[in-house]
Amino acid sequence: EIEDEDIEGYVKAEHTELIVTFKYAVSKQEEERLKEIQAEERAKKETVVKYRGVINYTDEDLKLLACLVHAEAGTQSYEGKLAVANVVINRVKSSKYPNTIKGVIYQKGQFSVASSGSLQKQLNNYAHFKSSSQKLSIKAAREALEGANNIGSRLYFNSYKAAVKKGYLNKPNCIKIDDHLFW
């Protein structure tokens, strides 16, 4: 391109040398850390709680969902617990899964805590849920049932380490919340 004139031309690549100069150099470690920071910022934006319509639920639905949340994410923050509850709600709303909370939770091969006995242990103890973590699981389940959603339409989650081993970290819409990866 020639300045001050409306002329454009082309030169064969074999006759040119490309020189790139950078204002700042970044190490591989710094580049990886920048990617991590960008992923964290994206996750913060994507996990802002939004509200959708309330779904009809019974006390039994709340109990079952709260116990599943506690079995899957008992040691995690409110955001992590809310995200797990929303996976169940999203599945209830999806045509790919049963249309009840019980149907989704007990669907064969979906939630390992349902088949391992961990969920039943929580259900048996539900009347004695008194710790702050247990109360937070109930709160997250109730608020998810009442429309609070921090994961959009995501349908799946796995422990972060297992998800990375299985390659789920490469999913385009995955987000990390506490010790889980959601997609």
Question: Could you explain how this protein is built, in words?
Answer:
- The protein is mainly alpha-helical.
- Helices cover 48% and strands 7% of the residues.
- It contains 8 helices and 5 strands.
- The chain has helices spanning 28-46, 59-73, 78-93, 101-105, 112-116, 118-125, 132-145, 160-165; strands spanning 50-51, 148-149, 157-159, 175-177, 180-182.
- The strands form 2 sheets. Strands 3-5-4 form a 3-stranded antiparallel beta sheet. The protein has a two-stranded antiparallel ribbon with strand order 1-2.
- Helix 2 (59-73) packs across helix 6.
- The model has no long low-confidence stretch (mean pLDDT 92).
Q: Which key phrases capture this entry?
A:
183 residues, mainly alpha, 3-stranded antiparallel sheet, 48% helix
Rg is 24 Å
Q: Provide the structure class.
A: mainly alpha
Largest pleated sheet = 3 strands, antiparallel
- Estimate the mean pLDDT confidence: 92
Spatial order of strands in the largest sheet: 3-5-4
Order of helices and strands: HEHHHHHHEEHEE
Q: Considering DSSP H and I runs of 4 or more, what fraction of the residues is helical?
A: 40-55%
- Global geometry: elongated
